[in-house]
């Protein structure tokens, strides 16, 4: 089937979906993006994703050509055009075409791109077996340099972490911040469980994950105590359970970190309970596509 890509109000088939080589999104990573999933004919947490996208755009003084409502409609239209009910959706707002200088004032008009594809469970059989994580030497961009809550097109920091994890044989990287606290994974947030309590780093050290927020809601619902606090290596190595959360990854249990077996080496009971509850939530809530 032809895949249709939305670019600035028109649909193009995949081969003809192109943007300018002078787009500052390409030249400088100047832009913002989102990763959204649709389940069972509904887009999960659409408002939250579009809010985060537009907050990021505002923070970098990027004016989108679409209102938030128009963006939501364009996302739904892209799914309909591609006849998708279950999908991974990638909206992108780039600074647009400029010259080879950095100055964004040279970019007359920003661009919107929306890609929607079929993408099943990211970690395959590892949801049953558990993921192997490795801590990496590269530090999370300090939020003083680039606020971690802007989901910007500049993902080189995360890619460096992924490269290091690949080299060390890990399924996912654990990135620390410049102060030595656990920040997050290369594309997901992290949670540690010890003695029936869940711990997760403050959002100042990572992307304010929408899946993370869903987990916080679920913990509230199931009365599982959750604490936001700084975490270090010791907390990871001695945890009963560890898991990561993200739109693409969903909830991924981690059963080995830097060679240390976590708990009994299998996804633990609280993680499993949250995985089940999250699946249920994604299948029963969201904005209808059709
Ligand atoms: N951290 C990073 C660096 C990410 O790229 C992502 C994925 N968007 C997340 C965390 C998880 O965020 P969300 O749950 O909103 O997908």
From TrEMBL:
Domain of life: Archaea
The keyword Transferase appears for this protein: yes
Keywords associated with the record: Amino-acid biosynthesis, Aminotransferase, Branched-chain amino acid biosynthesis, Pyridoxal phosphate, Transferase
GO annotation terms (biological process): isoleucine biosynthetic process; L-leucine biosynthetic process; L-valine biosynthetic process
Record pathway: Amino-acid biosynthesis; L-isoleucine biosynthesis; L-isoleucine from 2-oxobutanoate: step 4/4; Amino-acid biosynthesis; L-valine biosynthesis; L-valine from pyruvate: step 4/4; Amino-acid biosynthesis; L-leucine biosynthesis; L-leucine from 3-methyl-2-oxobutanoate: step 4/4
SUPFAM superfamilies: D-aminoacid aminotransferase-like PLP-dependent enzymes
Gene3D superfamilies: 3.30.470.10, D-amino Acid Aminotransferase, subunit A, domain 2 (3.20.10.10)
Cofactor(s) in the UniProt record: pyridoxal 5'-phosphate
Pfam family name, one: Aminotran_4
EC number of the protein: 2.6.1.42
Function in brief: Acts on leucine, isoleucine and valine.
Record family assignment: Belongs to the class-IV pyridoxal-phosphate-dependent aminotransferase family.
UniProt protein name: Branched-chain-amino-acid aminotransferase
Gene that this sequence comes from: ilvE
């Amino acid at each position: 089937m032809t895949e249709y890509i939305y670019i600035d109000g028109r649909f193009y088939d995949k081969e003809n979906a192109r943007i300018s080589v002078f787009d500052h999104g390409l030249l400088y990573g100047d832009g913002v993006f989102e990763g959204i999933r649709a389940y069972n004919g509904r887009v999960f947490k659409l408002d939250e994703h579009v809010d985060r996208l537009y907050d990021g755009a505002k923070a970098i003084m990027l004016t989108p050509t679409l209102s938030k409502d128009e963006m939501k409609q364009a996302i739904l239209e892209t799914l309909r055009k591609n006849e998708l009910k279950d999908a991974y959706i990638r909206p992108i707002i780039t600074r647009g075409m400029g010259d080879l200088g950095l100055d964004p004032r040279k970019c007359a008009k920003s661009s919107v791109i929306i890609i929607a594809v079929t993408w099943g469970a990211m970690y395959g059989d590892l949801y049953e077996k558990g993921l192997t994580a490795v801590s990496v030497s590269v530090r999370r961009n300090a939020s003083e340099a680039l606020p971690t809550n802007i989901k910007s097109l500049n993902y080189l920091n995360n890619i460096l972490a992924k490269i290091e994890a690949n080299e060390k044989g890990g399924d996912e990287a654990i990135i620390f911040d410049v102060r030595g606290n656990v920040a997050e994974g290369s594309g997901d947030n992290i949670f540690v469980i010890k003695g029936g309590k869940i711990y997760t780093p403050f959002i100042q050290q990572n992307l304010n994950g929408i899946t993370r927020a869903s987990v916080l809601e679920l913990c509230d619902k199931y009365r599982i105590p959750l604490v936001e606090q700084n975490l270090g290596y010791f907390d990871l190595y001695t945890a009963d359970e560890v898991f990561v959360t993200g739109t693409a990854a969903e909830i991924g249990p981690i059963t080995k970190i830097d060679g240390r077996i976590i708990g009994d080496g299998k996804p633990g009971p609280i993680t499993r309970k949250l995985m089940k509850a999250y699946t249920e939530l994604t299948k029963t809530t969201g904005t209808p596509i059709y």
